[in-house]
Amino acid sequence: MNHSHPSAARRPLSPFLRRTPELDTLSFSRPVQVGRVIADLFAARGLARREASLDLERAWNAVISEPLRRRTRVGVLRRGVLAVLVDHPILLEELAAYRKPQLLEALRRELPGAVLRDLRFRLGAIEPQPPPPTSPPPGCSS
């Protein structure tokens, strides 16, 4: 006996979730751990990839000096190889030939759960990053 309203299949699950094929395949016939449901939703929405990308960026920024940070951008990690965009051929050569082992080791320490086998440096234009937002000093009102 189906007690659901006829329009229930057309209503969104929540204001934040759209009905997708991934969500339609979820089975609610047996109990499921909440952590598993959240992980599946993250995967369906690509949120895990975005979080991993932010982790890579944070780790890169932690292991590279400020001047080099402005001239490089961390890319994607595929099959254990992290792509790094570099804005100048001489800097690319320096990173690839002389600093790669130290950078790789430092990144492995920053990302202990990641499989990081190699770094691949690639020449390309670097868009300037916007400055971090500043907050007014305590006691000042705007």
Notes on the structure:
This protein has 142 residues and is an alpha+beta fold. It has a domain of 72 residues: GMP Synthetase, Chain A, domain 3, CATH 3.30.300.180. It has five helices and three strands, in the order H-H-H-H-E-E-H-E. A three-stranded mixed beta sheet has the order 1-2-3. Helix 3 crosses helix 5. The radius of gyration is 22 Å and the shape is extended. The N and C termini lie far apart (60 Å). The mean pLDDT is 76.
Helix content: 40-55%
What's the end-to-end separation, in Å?
A: 60 Å
**Tally of individual helices:** 5
Estimated structural class = alpha+beta
Order of H and E elements = HHHHEEHE
Mean pLDDT: 76
In the CATH hierarchy, the architecture of one domain is 2-Layer Sandwich
In short:
The protein has five helices and three strands; from the N terminus they run ααααββαβ.
Describe this protein with a few key phrases:
142 residues; alpha+beta; 3-stranded mixed sheet; 42% helix
